[in-house]
Amino acid sequence: MRCTREEYEIFKLTRRYVTRDRRYLKLGGALLGMSGRDRAKFIRKLGKAAGEISPRELGVLLDRGWRERGTAAWLIAVAGRTEFRERLGELLLASAGPFAGQDYCVALATFGTSADADLLVAYLDRYLPRLDLYYDQTAALGALLLLDAKLRTDNAARFLVPGGLWQQWIDGPPSKERDDPDEYREFIGMLCAFTDEAAKHCSI
């Protein structure tokens, strides 16, 4: 069966920006496991791609599956396309699929404003009370702590008080790892450093 013109365009777009060199698998924590040389090459190509993709094409990717959405979030972060802030916040809050939530958190942390912090707070307000769900709470808290440090705010404080939502979520079923929240902040910070590095190779 022949595909439509629209389907073919989406296929080309995905092949160019998402699946080429298995890019979608190398974003996030996988970057930390790369050798310095491989990571530098990957980040250089990521920056170039972020400068080449159009806002319309990013919108198309955000309407697709987790691979496309996660990759689009990184390209948005690298290019500093803050016009997608609300869209990323909506996708994070919807938690409609696996894997991409951390990428939205990285993008919001990269943007680095109080508006981005508000979106992370909204996510934590909704999903920390869900003791049965393990989605992207750790990434969102890490990103919020990172923004608190940058903006000199204390948005995360109310989640971290003894007996507060964070402790309740950690203690709730299923049992979660009791890592220091600052470790999540450091992790998101390292990922944001990669977006900053890639941005040096981005020309819009």
Detailed description of the structure:
α4 packs antiparallel against α5. Helix content is 68%, strand content 0%. The chain has twelve helices and no strands. By secondary structure, it is mainly alpha-helical.
Instruction: Determine Rg (CA atoms, Å).
Output: 17 Å
The portion of residues forming beta strands comes to under 5%
Please report the number of helical segments: 12
Largest sheet: none
The tally of beta strands, per DSSP, is 0
**Poorly predicted regions:** none
Mean pLDDT: 93
- Choose one word for the global shape: globular
Q: List the helices and strands in order.
A: HHHHHHHHHHHH
Label the structural class: mainly alpha
Summarize the structure.
With 204 residues, this protein is mainly α. 68% of the residues lie in helices and 0% in strands.
List keywords for this structure.
204 residues; mainly alpha; 12 helices; 68% helix
Secondary-structure blueprint:
Layout: H1 5-19, H2 23-26, H3 36-52, H4 55-62, H5 66-79, H6 85-94, H7 101-111, H8 114-127, H9 137-151, H10 157-160, H11 165-171, H12 181-199
